[in-house]
Automatic annotation (TrEMBL):
Residues in Transposase IS4-like domain copies: 3-136
NCBIfam families membership: transpos_IS5_3 (NF033580)
Cross-referenced InterPro entries: Transposase_11 (IPR002559)
Domain of life the protein comes from: Bacteria
Protein name stated in the entry: Transposase IS4-like domain-containing protein
Organism: Streptomyces macrosporus
Length: 146
C-alpha cells in the first residue's frame, strides 16, 4: 500500500433497489475505475424464466470517477449502456436521482463497525466481512418482501 492514501476502499455494484450484487475491497490509493469490469464479471447469474439468464445490467449509472472513454467503449461492447456523468461539466446530470440508492447501500454497510473501521490486517478477512454484510442486507431485504 502506498503512503499517499492509507486504508481500504469498498467497491459495490447494486441493482436498482439497492441490493448488493457484487463487492470487493482494494487499497485506498487504487482508482475506482480499475474495479469496474471485475465487479461486472462477478455479478452472479440469476435463475428465473427459461432460457439464458441475464447476468449483465442493461444500464450502468456511475459518477465522474468512471468517466473514461476506454471503459465506455468496453461497456458498449458488453451490451451495457453507460450513463456516466462527464468530468468538467457542471452538476445537473440527473444522476443524483439514482445515485442515492448506492449511497443508501453504503450507509447500510457502514452500520457494521468492522467495515467502517478496519481492524483486520489481512485483506481476505476484510473481504469476507464485506460479503457477509452484503448477505445480511440481502436477507433483510428478502424478509421485508414476504
Amino acid at each position: 500500500m502506498d503512503r499517499g492514501r492509507p486504508g481500504s476502499q469498498h467497491h459495490v455494484i447494486v441493482d436498482r433497489l439497492g441490493t448488493p450484487l457484487a463487492a470487493s475491497v482494494t487499497d485506498g490509493n487504487r482508482h475506482d475505475v480499475t474495479q469496474l469490469l471485475p465487479l461486472l464479471d462477478a455479478i452472479p447469474r440469476i435463475r428465473g424464466q427459461r432460457g439464458r439468464p441475464r447476468h449483465r445490467p442493461k444500464r450502468l449509472f456511475a459518477d465522474r470517477g468512471y468517466d473514461y472513454d476506454v471503459y465506455r467503449r468496453l461497456l458498449w461492447k458488453r451490451g451495457i449502456k453507460p450513463l456516466i456523468a462527464r468530468r468538467g461539466i457542471a452538476h445537473g446530470s440527473g444522476l443524483g436521482r439514482t445515485r442515492w440508492v448506492l449511497e443508501r447501500t453504503f450507509a447500510r454497510l457502514y452500520q457494521f463497525k468492522r467495515l467502517r473501521i478496519r481492524y483486520e490486517h489481512r485483506a481476505d478477512l476484510h473481504q469476507g466481512l464485506l460479503e457477509l454484510a452484503c448477505s445480511i442486507i440481502c436477507l433483510r431485504r428478502l424478509r421485508r418482501s414476504f
